[in-house]
User: Fold this.
Amino acid sequence: MTDVLARQDRALTPEETEALLRDRLGDQILSSSTDFATFTVWVAPGGWHAAAQLCRDESLLAYDLFDCLLGVDARDDGFDVVAVLYSTSTGNRICLRTRCEGGRDAPVCPSLTDVYRGADWMERETYDMFGIDFPGHPGLEPRILTVENFEGWPLRKDFHLASRVAKPWPGVNEPAELDDEGNVIEREPEVGGAPGPYDLDKAMAEQARAVNASEEDQEEGEGTGDDAQASGSEQQDEDEAPAPELDQETYDKLIAEGKSERIARSKAKAALIKKQRAGGGDTGGGGSDEGDGGDDQPSAAEKAEARRKEQAEARRKKAEERAAETGQDDDASDEGAPGADDEEEQA
Amino acid sequence: MSDLSTRERVHPGSAPGEDFHLEIVGDGDFQTADMKLSIGPAHPATHGVFRIVLEMDGERVTGARPVIGYMHRGFEKLAEHRDYRQIKALVNRHDWLSGFSNELGVALAVERMMEMEVPDRAQWIRMLLAEWNRILNHLMFIGSYAIELGAITPMFYAFREREDIQHLLESATGGRLHFTYNQVGGLKIDLPKGFLRQSTELSALIRKRVPDYHDLVLGNDIFQARTVGVGPLPPEVALSLGVTGPTLHATGVPEDSRVTEPYLKYGEIDVDVPVGENGDSFDRFYCLLARISASLDIIDQIHDHLPAGPVNTKLPKMVKAPEGATYLRTENPLGQLGYWLESDGGRTPWRLKMRTPSFSNVQAIPYLLEGVLVPDAIAVLGSVFFVVGDIDR
Assistant:
């Protein structure tokens, strides 16, 4: 311990380090910050290699441990590259950060492989994930983590996560999309343009979406049926009031036959869906989802939203019922709700 | 090796890599030819889907090219679509032998960005479990490395101890591999009743059993013959490659973030960092074994220090890190694990980079394998302790 403390006494402070770098590299050093206990120095792309070289060779700095190198998506400005260096002799750490030249189309950053051996795989990984070219690197290909014929740059923000495109978030809380007041923003994720999920992904997304839609139809039908049987006609009215979508013809016919209103309604609904399916089949091909299906039938995301709302409603009702049964006051049910959220997150 | 007439022959004493024409050599002369040997991606010596292509001149390895990525699961991308509280379930999967230490890093990084005060008791318990997790990890490698060198028995001993530790951790966390016990702001729940007594007893028991490993493996003549002087790594090369953990300590550099950049309460206790001298396979294994004793020392100190109090803080309804970036490094069992966490102020991270120890350590393999014989290659490969999921993420 004492040895370590003695070493850290000799270490330069962040201000001194920045002054030293500025002295040697002039206006190539742009700015620095020590936010969140992380000493970051912004370097112009032209001074990137020289800065790393200086950090390693200058005896006052002596950053000998190459910790890591990573890319960051910087929105319209392109991409950033960060190199984290550590000095085993002074106990200091520095994060050099630069913005790649070439914008989003052809980002380029000089390679550090001749300064630090460890930059080799780190730069290959950054190339693999962001498509940043590192001139001077002995060989960025073949792609290090993804498969060799992979298309697109996975960690760019315009590369959409296929599973999130295919299926909405399976919980009440959507982690990514909340407005300022904390309300869930419901929006249907778009299938990415260039260079997002390639054709296979798109096809899989379409397929999954179709399967989801049909599953939800079935579940909805079963769900309302069970509810109706369990809790009588009042709740059923509430459930069905916002979406009175059923085949009026079949409904009238069944009522005339003397069937109960409930049975008639659910059968009419099924008939409507059957008709729509048949209509989609006639027009044929994959275009049916976007064509007539899109006009008459709510999309998967809208259905999911409706279902989510239903579930939330049912949960709240249950909690209220439970509170009423046990005779507890409102506080108890308030405590119950966050607990349920936690369980969902862990699941 | 069957058809001599169609095979290229290398002139004895010539440098590898040049082109040679067929040359007639008389019977009895030593003839070799360059060949490529692909080990893996499913080979016992690589314990995981990890492939390494060896270029060989006879029995001697002239070049090695690790091929990784077979287990790439895109955790960094997935983390960008998860709430800060949900990331821990992703990160304890990349290195499946040190789940607790992995999730610890993310929890600490988020807490640092949110400037959250974590209760003392939670910090001490985190240290306690992280050290048990370290021993759990090292025991696995002690067993598997001995198997790679032909000794089956140590594996049984290692798993006897591992099972005891698994039971202990399971009693607190409910998990054996993926603990998900850390939370932003503390721990999921407090330790169960009787945990400290069990932990103390187990610590004494394992301390009593550690000499067995010294006798069985480290002091074994065959083990020494296979490992001493095999695959030496110079400290400056190791640092330049970013090698950390026992592999770095074996080269004589006592760089351990528990000592040099203390997180949690490591600054308040004595942490012993065992180091080697030559950086060879033997030293790497020695450091691994000695770290078990060092961790037991830490565990005993934690038992003396553990305060009473709460183990978690009340989180706001929404966990949002402010805009900015931080880099946090913790000492994982296999080396230093760094998390670069960048936030744009939203509910999910803008970027989460996992700097995993195995990725950097495996980068040293081409250097280490150059010039060694094939049997030694296995001894070297096993001594650069890595978990394949930790390389590929």
User: Anything to note?
Assistant: The first helix of chain B runs from residue 75 to 79.
